[in-house]
Amino acid sequence: MSGSDIGIVAAAFELPGAPRDVEAWAQAEGVSPRLVDSLLAHGCRQFHELDGGSDADFIDAALARLDAPPGWARDVRYLVHAHTQAFSMPAPPSSLLAELAQRHGLRPALAFSVGQLACASAIVAVDLAARLLREDPQARYALVVTSDRVFGDARYRIQGRTSVQSDGASALLLGREGLRCRLGAASVRQFAALHAGPCTPALALAMARQLWRHTAALLREHEAAGGVPLAAYREILPANADRADWLKVQDELNLAPGQVFLDNVGRRGHACCADLAVNLVDRGFALLAGQPAPLLAFGQSNVGAFSALTLWPAGELQA
């Protein structure tokens, strides 16, 4: 079946301020010329930086851009928050979910956060929200929100030698009517040896060497589990990072040149969990509306977690 009855009704993101130039910023931050050269060689060109405000304010900016049906907020039954950074939500007793509910008049039956899978969390959050809707025929909408920020200098914004992190927030409204796309199979894979992240030189080296292999492994598993050949996907929308690794994956799996969408690595920077909405709005929705072929959204992380999600055009269900 080409997708389920559950899909994405609307998606929006917020990347704050004007894009920052990686080269000029890195030189001003005293980043080594060798590292700057590596970032540029891996396609890193721009990123966005938030100047103040809370995570709730940041998500509000994304919700303000959400082109959703009037009165959607009162019909949200499930609220899910995804994040990469452990500090991208306030510590108890504060509650980001409760604050969002109060601000927007949401009355969810269930609200929770997904964060332990880092940048793979957004796809997992969407899949969990879709599962809840499928099990609750009376529910109209589920809302998935994300927020990730960097606190500190260039040491915290530069991820290895292949990506620069943007501050980013997003919102995705799931439902059954007025869909922009239908949700298909979802896959998740964890490589437990890397769960601690690049906290030691040895783990950082292992992560760098294995990232493309782990990515390829999950793509093969997703192909087998979902029954859709990788060649059938119009494009793969990855997290906006690790361009060189994706080129290796493209060669390893015999993907068509350009089948992996890499433009936003340089144009947007890596906004962690917001990358899913960024790529859908920038690229995915237009492709799904123009051609009857699926897309594959992918989330890779530096903690050994990987996720994949098939996105189908929002047409009639077909056997």
List unreliable stretches of 5+ residues. Answer: none
Biggest sheet statistics: 9 strands, mixed
Helix-residue proportion: 25-40%
Number of strands: 13
Rounded Rg: 19 Å
Q: What is the count of helical runs? A: 10
Structural class: alpha+beta
Question: What's this entry about, in short?
Answer:
This protein is α+β, with helices and mostly antiparallel strands and 319 residues long.
What are the SSEs and their pairings?
Layout: E1 7-14, E2 20-21, H1 22-28, H2 33-41, E3 46-47, H3 55-63, E4 76-82, H4 96-104, E5 110-114, H5 121-134, E6 141-148, H6 154-157, E7 158-159, E8 163-164, E9 168-175, E10 181-190, H7 201-226, E11 236-237, H8 243-252, H9 263-267, H10 275-290, E12 295-300, E13 305-313
Parallel strand pairs: 4-5, 4-6, 11-12
Antiparallel strand pairs: 1-9, 1-10, 2-3, 6-9, 7-8, 10-13, 12-13
Structure notes:
By secondary structure, the protein is an alpha+beta fold. It is 34% helix and 22% strand. The chain has 10 helices and 13 strands. It has helices at residues 22-28, 33-41, 55-63, 96-104, 121-134, 154-157, 201-226, 243-252, 263-267, 275-290; strands at residues 7-14, 20-21, 46-47, 76-82, 110-114, 141-148, 158-159, 163-164, 168-175, 181-190, 236-237, 295-300, 305-313. β12 (295-300) and β13 form a beta hairpin. α1 (22-28) packs antiparallel against α2 and α7 (201-226) crosses α8. The longest helix has 26 residues, at 201-226.
What are the salient characteristics of this protein?
alpha+beta; nine-stranded mixed β-sheet; 319 residues; globular; two-stranded antiparallel sheet
